[in-house]
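Retro notes, item 3 of 5
We never archived the inputs for the pyridoxal-5'-phosphate complex last cycle. Fixing that now. Sequence and ligand:
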Amino acid sequence: MIPISKPLLGEAEAEAARRAILSGWITQGPEVAAFEREFAAAVNAPFACAVSNCTTALHLALLAAGVGAGDEVITVSHSFIATANSIRYTGALPVFVDITPETFNIDPARVEAAITGRTKAILCVHQMGMPCDLKVLVEIAAAHRLPLIEDAACAIGSEILWNGNWERIGKPHGDIACFSFHPRKVISTGDGGMLTTRRAEWDRKLRLWRQHGMSVADTVRHSARQVVFEEYLELGYNYRLTDIQAAVGREQLKRLDGIVARRREQAEWYRAALAAISDVQTPAEPVWARSNWQSYAVRLANPREQAEVMQLLLERGIATRRGIMCSHREPAYSREPWRAAGALTHSEQAQERTLILPLYPQMTVGDQQAVVSALAAVLERECVA
Ligand SMILES: *Cc1c(COP(=O)(O)O)cnc(C)c1O
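Structure as it came back at the time:
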């Protein structure tokens, strides 16, 4: 059986978890602080704040941007549901903009028309690790004095060409970026999240909110020589990452360059091998983007084939997933309020016509060959892989 994905974890991570456990401090503490420093250095961000997952990261990013009830946030429906949900947590209205079919990312040409007097932020998604057209989005956001939040859940290690240099997603190029360490992403801590920002004031708020709005960090109280009474300054949350997870994350971060290089090699292998199957369209990077290929989505010429092809592949021992969901089509959003700025045709077609193929660093060329030949057989096409 070839799974869709598999986290790359080993002795180093097990040893790190053991170290944290035996240290006697297991919730947010010195490992989290070290993970934040190392993550900030890895993406070249001024500030990094760890949280429990990317959904809570998105919630805090929206709060930092001042988003609340009655506001509108421009985003995509074509994303994991957490993107839209995080907007609803604040009471704001998600305004869905269509994607460009080539990149599966928000179509920057449609963003400006979606802006109203109620718009409070733009939340773009680097879908499946492919960077958004940040240059244009940053310009639009600046022209309208709107904060730009990047949902970089999938994009750790992805790069964008910025003023002639390749820079990692998360610098951040917008105002704040949110990452996920769920096992389906490129590096994992089981669950986990990280926010990077250029704004010191936002970073200070994130640190307050992730720990109940508590005035004194528990590590500070723990090591204080004098009795400390804490205060709860604002409505906060428990969105902490644990030191056990952070210790694992630090080891995962050491593997990041190798994992991304491997995934890029594997994506290139798929591209070349799948070129022979004419009704399978492979994804392409814009010249200014380097994806980490968190997911590898191919488009089928015939949409009627999607479920059937997936089933036949499953019977051959190959797991696939359909294209990224459209939040507006989910039952939850028949009750939750939202608005579409224009048609969502490309979003819906991407969901219906794409197939995500297995891709993870432990996959061998033989595994990839098996996927491509099974796909060719199922589509009754000749396979040259
Ligand atoms: C996975 C994902 C999330 C949620 O991340 P969690 O860490 O599981 O909360 C949010 N947005 C996108 C685009 C994702 O792929």
